[in-house]
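Progress against Task 2.4 (sequence-to-structure conversion) is shown through the following example record, which the project officer requested during the mid-term review.
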Amino acid sequence: MSDPFDSIAGDFAERANVSSLPSRRPFMLVVHSHRPAKDEQGKLIDGKIEIVETAHLEDKLTKDLQYNATIIIDLLNNKCIKRRFQAVQGPDEEPIILAHYLGKYKDKVAAAFQAYLQMTSLSESQLAIVNQAIANLENVNADAGK
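Structure tokens generated for the chain above:
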């Protein structure tokens, strides 16, 4: 039986690889997990589940992180490189996904960019890419507020 991740690995690697950027760069990962739903008293509600969303930032994507994440956003390229368990196919979906998650977790993303800038020594062209990514984030956040 083949690993289900292998079916999307080629497209994922192609979308995530940008040769002008360092291999370690900020990615936002969103993981959705399911657990039994509970009422206000903490008792299980029969037959009900709830979805728990957790977002975190990484500077390198391992195979496990890629496999377990529901959403992966390459913050420097302003691209959603994974949605659910398929590579993002439709160009119409990507702006919606970016606006939602970058707007929802804008404080975490801003902190990630600041940490990234402090821990890396970037060339002038790489710094221009980072600054453009930060500008894109500000635009997404402004659009999300409309």
